[in-house]
């Protein structure tokens, strides 16, 4: 069956329509980036690295401070600090594994 004038058959793709679809996708992507709905791919990796670094440093510094305070209050130097540092390392690794194991957005 022949198509009428101005109609495109199912088996033939019009290159103009394909070009229009590509331009629409690109425009939607640019608008999503502009409004902050989508982050660029390089920002996602940078953000993930910052989260891992913050988890590592925060856990270690926080646990060391708590251990030092325990040692000062109870006179158990250096055992409170050592025990809390090991707990801080365990918490940091757990957080890093949780962050790295998450599904990408």
Automatic annotation (TrEMBL):
GO terms for cellular component: proton-transporting ATP synthase complex. Keywords: Hydrogen ion transport, Ion transport, Membrane, Transmembrane, Transmembrane helix, Transport. InterPro entries: Atp1_alphaprobac (IPR016989), ATPase_put (IPR032820). Pfam families: ATPase_gene1. GO terms for biological process: proton transmembrane transport. The chain crosses the membrane at residues 52-73, 79-97. A possible function for this protein is to guide the assembly of the membrane sector of the ATPase enzyme complex. Belongs to the bacterial AtpI family. This is ATP synthase protein I. It comes from Sphingomonas gellani.
């Amino acid at each position: 069956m022949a198509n009428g004038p101005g109609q495109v058959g199912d088996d033939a793709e019009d290159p103009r329509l394909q070009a229009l679809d590509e331009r629409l996708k690109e425009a939607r992507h640019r608008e999503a980036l502009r409004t902050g709905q989508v982050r660029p791919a390089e920002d996602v990796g940078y953000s993930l690295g910052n989260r891992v670094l913050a988890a590592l440093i925060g856990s270690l510094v926080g646990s060391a401070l708590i251990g030092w305070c325990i040692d000062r209050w109870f006179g158990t130097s250096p055992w409170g600090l050592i025990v809390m540092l090991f707990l801080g390392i365990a918490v940091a690794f757990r957080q890093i594994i949780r962050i790295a194991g998450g599904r990408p957005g």
